[in-house]
C-alpha cells in the first residue's frame, strides 16, 4: 500500500481533521524534555477504541509502525517517533471520557486519554479518592500512566499505577480489542494479561481504557516539612513515622538543602519555613491521612515530631494548619524539577534501591563522582518511602554525560537497585537496559514481544533494541 493510499484510508476512518500532517503534527513530535524530535507519516487522533482498532489494522496491513502517545509528559522519549517519518503517532487525547463510577465496588472506568487530574476530580466529586499523584498530573494521561507504571508521591501507601488498576481494555498489534475491563479484586483464571500491558510502554499494544480503584476520602490530612541533619536521620524518621501512623502515612519525600535553595532562588515568591538550613542538611516532606478528624491527625503528628526532635532525628519542623499551607509545602517539592530546568545542563537519574541502602549509596556515590568529576554539584531528591531517588547532578564543563551516567548506574546495579524506578526505558535507556538486565531476562522479554507483536510495529525502538541484523525484537 502506498503512503497516499494509507493516508486516504486513515482519513476515511477518522475524518480529515483527525489525521494531522505538516505543521499541524509538529507539537506531537518532540518529547517533553525537548531533546528528541522525530518525524511521522501522520498524527492520528481516534475518538474511541473501535477507531483505534481500525487504525491499527490498517497500519498492520501496510507494515507501518504505530507510536502511542498520551500527554507526552514522559522523561525518556517513549512517545516520540524516530526520524524516518515511517511511523504514525497515535494520540489518545480525544478519548477522555469517564465511562462509569461504581461506588459500591469503589471503581472508576475511564478512557486512556483522561488527564490524571480530571480522574482525581471525578473521584472527589463522587466522594472518593484516586490517589495517583504526579507533578505532571495536569497534563499526563491515564493511558500513559499505565503504560509506564507511573509512581508519584503516594506509592508508599497506595502503590504504583499497576496496583491501582483492576482491568484494562487494549487494542492488540493485530487490531483486535481485548475487553478486560473487569472490576475484580480476585480473578485467578490464568496469565495476568493486565500486568503484562502495564509498564510495557506501548510496545505490546495500545491501552484504551481502564478500571481503576477508588478509596475513601480521608477525613483529615496534615503535612509537615521537617529539617533533618542527613539521610541517615531521614531514614530513622521514616521508620518512626511508619510505626506512629501505620497506613495513615501516605507520603515521605526527601530533598537536599541545595534543591531547596535552587527553588527559592528560581522562584522568589516561594518561601522556606526555616530561616537557616545547614548546607549538608536535608528536608523531609511527610503527609498523614487520618480517618477520624483534624484534631486527631494533629495530635498524632505532633507526638511523632516531638519524639523525632528529642532524639535528634529532626532539627526543626513546620506543620501545615490549612490546605493552602500544605499545598505550599508540596509546591516547594514539585518546583525542584522546574528550578533545575533553569540551571545549566542537568544529568538526571531515576533510580531505586532498598531504602535501607540509600544513605550509604548517596554518600559513597557523591564521593566517587566528586573524585572523578571535580566541581560536580549534586541535586538529589525523591521518594524515600518507596526507595526512589531522582539522583541528579550539575556536571562541570566538559564532563561526559555518558561517563557520569555509567558511573552512577554501575553503582546502582552493584547495590541491587534499578536504573529506572518510575520513568521507564523509552528511547533514552535502551542501551542501559541491555547492560544491566540479565541475558535470561532480556530473552524472555524478547520472546514476549515477538509473540504478541511479530511484525515489530508497536512503538519500535523503545524498551528493546533491534538485534545485530537490524531486525526489531
TrEMBL record:
Pfam families: FAD-oxidase_C, FAD_binding_4. Its cofactor is FAD. One of its GO terms (biological process) is respiratory electron transport chain. Keywords: FAD, Flavoprotein. Residues 36-217 form the FAD-binding PCMH-type domain. SUPFAM superfamilies: FAD-binding/transporter-associated domain-like (SSF56176), FAD-linked oxidases, C-terminal domain (SSF55103). GO terms for molecular function: catalytic activity; FAD binding. Belongs to the FAD-binding oxidoreductase/transferase type 4 family. This is FAD linked oxidase C-terminal domain-containing protein 4.
Amino acid at each position: 500500500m502506498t503512503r497516499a493510499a494509507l493516508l486516504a484510508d486513515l482519513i476515511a476512518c477518522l475524518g480529515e481533521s483527525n489525521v494531522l500532517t505538516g505543521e499541524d503534527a509538529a507539537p506531537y513530535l518532540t518529547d517533553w524534555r525537548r531533546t528528541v524530535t522525530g518525524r511521522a507519516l501522520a498524527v492520528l487522533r481516534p475518538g474511541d477504541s473501535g477507531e483505534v482498532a481500525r487504525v491499527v489494522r490498517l497500519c498492520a496491513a501496510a507494515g507501518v509502525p504505530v507510536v502511542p502517545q498520551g500527554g507526552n509528559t514522559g522523561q525518556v522519549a517513549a512517545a516520540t517517533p524516530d526520524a524516518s517519518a515511517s511511523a504514525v503517532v497515535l494520540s489518545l487525547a480525544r478519548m477522555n471520557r469517564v465511562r462509569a463510577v461504581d461506588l459500591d465496588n469503589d471503581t472508576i472506568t475511564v478512557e486512556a486519554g483522561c488527564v490524571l487530574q480530571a480522574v482525581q476530580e471525578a473521584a472527589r466529586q463522587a466522594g472518593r479518592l484516586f490517589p495517583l499523584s504526579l507533578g505532571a498530573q495536569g497534563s499526563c494521561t491515564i493511558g500513559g500512566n499505565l503504560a509506564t507504571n507511573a509512581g508519584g508521591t503516594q506509592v508508599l501507601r497506595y502503590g504504583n499505577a499497576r496496583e491501582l488498576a483492576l482491568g484494562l481494555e487494549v487494542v492488540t498489534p493485530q487490531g483486535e480489542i481485548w475487553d478486560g475491563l473487569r472490576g475484580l479484586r480476585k480473578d485467578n483464571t490464568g496469565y495476568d494479561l493486565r500486568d503484562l500491558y502495564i509498564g510495557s510502554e506501548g510496545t505490546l499494544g495500545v491501552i484504551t481504557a481502564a478500571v481503576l480503584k477508588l478509596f475513601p476520602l480521608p477525613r483529615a490530612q496534615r503535612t509537615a516539612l521537617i529539617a533533618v541533619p542527613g539521610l541517615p536521620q531521614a531514614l530513622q524518621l521514616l521508620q518512626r513515622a511508619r510505626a506512629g501512623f501505620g497506613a495513615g502515612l501516605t507520603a515521605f519525600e526527601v530533598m537536599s538543602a541545595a534543591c531547596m535553595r535552587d527553588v527559592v532562588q528560581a522562584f522568589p515568591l516561594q518561601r522556606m519555613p526555616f530561616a537557616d538550613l545547614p548546607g549538608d542538611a536535608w528536608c523531609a516532606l511527610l503527609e498523614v491521612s487520618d480517618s477520624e478528624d483534624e484534631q486527631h491527625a494533629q495530635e498524632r503528628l505532633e507526638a511523632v515530631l516531638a519524639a523525632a526532635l528529642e532524639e535528634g532525628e529532626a532539627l526543626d519542623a513546620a506543620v501545615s494548619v490549612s490546605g493552602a499551607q500544605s499545598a505550599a509545602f508540596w509546591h516547594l517539592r514539585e518546583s525542584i524539577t522546574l528550578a533545575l530546568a533553569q540551571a545549566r545542563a542537568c544529568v538526571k537519574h531515576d533510580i531505586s534501591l532498598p531504602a535501607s541502602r540509600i544513605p550509604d549509596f548517596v554518600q559513597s556515590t557523591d564521593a566517587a563522582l566528586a573524585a572523578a568529576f571535580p566541581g560536580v554539584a549534586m541535586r538529589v531528591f525523591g521518594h524515600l518511602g518507596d526507595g526512589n531517588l531522582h539522583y541528579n547532578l550539575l556536571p562541570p564543563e566538559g564532563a561526559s554525560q555518558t561517563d557520569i551516567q555509567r558511573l552512577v548506574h554501575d553503582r546502582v546495579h552493584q547495590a541491587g537497585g534499578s536504573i529506572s524506578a518510575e520513568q521507564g526505558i523509552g528511547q533514552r535507556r535502551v542501551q542501559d537496559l541491555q547492560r544491566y538486565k540479565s541475558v535470561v531476562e532480556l530473552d524472555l522479554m524478547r520472546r514476549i514481544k515477538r509473540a504478541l507483536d511479530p511484525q515489530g510495529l508497536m512503538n519500535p525502538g523503545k524498551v528493546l533494541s533491534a538485534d545485530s541484523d537490524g531486525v526489531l525484537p
